[in-house]
Design brief:
This protein has about 100 residues and is mainly α. About 45% of the residues lie in helices and about 0% in strands.
């Protein structure tokens, strides 16, 4: 889980808002919070899952699957040797 340390969700959210050319006030309205709260979100390394779902809906971007479970992400790509399976398991999501 060392790769989890490399993910700064606030920075990713800010980048996606900028990519969408969305104003912070517009985004704040979409997730039903104050502008100051959005700036606070930008500084966070982690976030509540319910809030991340609201943000994903507002930005029409699936942060959970794209960032944490993407094929590109190396977060869960470590090879795991499991004595209960006859072969190595390199991605547990296939089971």
């Amino acid at each position: 889980m060392d790769k989890l340390k490399d993910i700064h969700i606030g920075t990713l959210i800010k980048a996606k808002i900028m990519e969408r050319n969305m104003q912070v006030t517009e985004f704040a309205k979409k997730i039903n919070c104050e502008r100051t709260t959005v700036y606070n979100i930008f500084t966070r390394k982690s976030i509540d899952i319910e809030q991340l779902i609201r943000i994903s809906q507002a930005l029409e971007y699936d942060f959970i699957n794209e960032v944490y479970f993407s094929k590109k992400s190396t977060l869960f790509q470590k090879e795991i040797i499991c004595p209960y399976f006859p072969r190595s398991v390199s991605n547990l999501s296939t089971y």
